[in-house]
Amino acid sequence: MLATLVSVPAAVVEAVERGLRASGASPSCHVLSVTGADVIAAPVEEGLLVAWDAGGPLDALLEDVRRLHALRVVARTHLVVLTSRDDAQTEALAEAGADECVASGGSGWGARVVALRRRLASDTEAHDVRALRRANTFLRSALDAVPEPLFVKDRQHRWVAVNQAFCRVMGHPAEALLGRSDHEFVAAHEADSFWRNDERVFLTGGPDESEETLTDRTGLARVLVTKKAGFDGAGEAFLVCIIRDITDQKRLESQLLLAERMASVGTLAAGVAHEINNPLAYVSSNLAYVRDLLALPELSAEQLPELREVVAEALDGAGRVCAIVRDLRTFARGDEERHGPVDVVRAVEGALRLVRNELTHRARMVCTLERVPPVHGNEVRLGQVVLNLLVNALQSLPERPAEENRVRVSLRTGRAGQVELEVSDNGHGMAPEVQRRIFDPFFTTRPVGEGTGLGLSICLTLVQAMGGRIEVSSAQGWGSTFRVVLPALAVGTVAAPESPVLGNVVPLAMRKRLLLIDDEPSVGNSVSRLVRDVYEVHAVQDAREALRRLSTGERFDAILCDLMMPGMSGMDFVVELERLAPELVLRTGLMTGGAFTAQAREFVGRHSRGLLEKPFERERLCTFVEHLFP
């Protein structure tokens, strides 16, 4: 600390120095003696500032005091005027800037130094507190200025900083979140997933980006992309995360994929109708023949083989129609988010059935499908890839006789556990500049109104999502080959257990009672005939009638109910059944002809033992029903 003495006589300077030494303050206080106030050029930032009153006019002294006061940092200095003037004049000096007026020389210099040092320490602490508050306010404002939800966690996975956007996502104010963890606010399985992902970042120290699901206060599962990074602050680990809500984006992507699938199927509508009408023609005619034959008083032995042949043909035709309808329904489904082992052969065959008629009239089809391992993905999306590639191949063929056009599909097991699917044609081919852009969204070489330009772009997106890639080779005038390479899934296949009732006639006294609810009387009649040798089937056309029978105490071992019905739907029935006879809910299965919403599918997953899709044959029906029995 510096004691600056201005215009102080030498004897007084010595007296001040003696007072400082006597107080013990001298080791940290240095005395600087200057001849006049006008000599001090730089501001005095800290310490004692001592001015001498030589006894001249008061105005001259006041001017010196004002000049010294203007040159000092008031909060960190103490201005002392050594004067013997009366009280009125010392008050004028105080108004000019003096902190203290004392007699010449005076005493207590050590006490002044101690008081100033204490004031400086207090001011420093207050300054630090103010700086900390300003930094905290700045940090809060900076975090809240970020539009995306953001949080910081400590090593114990507790929130230590959050912004307002994150508070809105969680539905709680910052005060309720700070110092607490995910497990106190979200479902256990989601909190466990968050903890595992966060812990991986803590352990590796590297950044991480992943999709996570958070169920909000309304029960809606939101899809979040989280970007996380760990950092070390003064030896302590922290994690900072920025969140982007892509729920609407995922919904729009699903709608776009479904629209593109429907557009692909729409281009083949005439061919699909042909594939359905052909078998329907001989199914109808054969059934009419059976009806006329059964109208006879009796059948001869010669007519029985033909009758069996006619029935077999009708069943074959119905099977072909079922396969086409199943393929169409698969492509119309909106459950693309379900992932698991996919039978590639089945996905390829389903797409081929949809384009078979178009291919037959446009080109020679060469198909080589080897048995390959399953891949991890979604059957609907893989089928969409195959269908888009087949439609692309058809559209590339020139207008010439069908025998001159060729489309080849091959499926094989590739190197290093990969599955390879090739779709090639001998069509127009592509120029190099076209080939470079074929996967760009909305790029198409088709005339306006004949293509969206999304087919191949969507194919690439879906294949990459399954961990695969698409390779293309093409030459103008020679055709193109698209090769889809997917990683095989190394899983064992387990055969479905056969129903114990298949192939057996169950004695009447041992048959279990099945309540069948379907608004179509023909469905109830056909199911009753189909399994009357193994189950005691009671069919009703109204779910309210079923509830009435159950409320009167009638007992059933299992219930099979149609999902979509007028009046009371299958979903309404299950909800009411949970109130009336909750023990029967686990023995209730739902069936559908395919017309149901995503909400209905979610309802089935939460409230029912499963979903049986129509049409069904005896074996599949019995297997489904057997799983409903306790």
Structure commentary:
With 630 residues, the protein is an alpha/beta fold. Helix content is 45%, strand content 21%. The protein contains 19 helices and 22 strands. A five-stranded parallel sheet has the order 2-1-3-4-5, sandwiched between helices. Strands 7-6-10-9-8 form a five-stranded antiparallel sheet, with helices on both faces. The protein has a five-stranded mixed sheet with strand order 12-14-15-17-16, with helices on one face. The longest helix has 37 residues, at 109-145. The protein is elongated. The N and C termini lie far apart (92 Å).
Overall geometry comes to elongated
Separation of the first and last Cα atoms: 92 Å
Mean of residue pLDDT values:
81
Chain oligomer state: single chain
Total count of strands: 22
Structural class assignment: alpha/beta
Strand order of the largest sheet: 2-1-3-4-5
- Unreliable stretches (pLDDT < 50, length at least 5) are 492-499
User: Major beta sheet, specifics?
Assistant: 5 strands, parallel
Task: Give the helix proportion (percent range).
Answer: 40-55%
Task: Please report which band the strand proportion falls in: under 5%, 5-15%, 15-25%, 25-35%, 35-45% or over 45%.
Answer: 15-25%
Distinct helical segment count: 19
Radius of gyration, in angstroms, nearest whole number? 44 Å
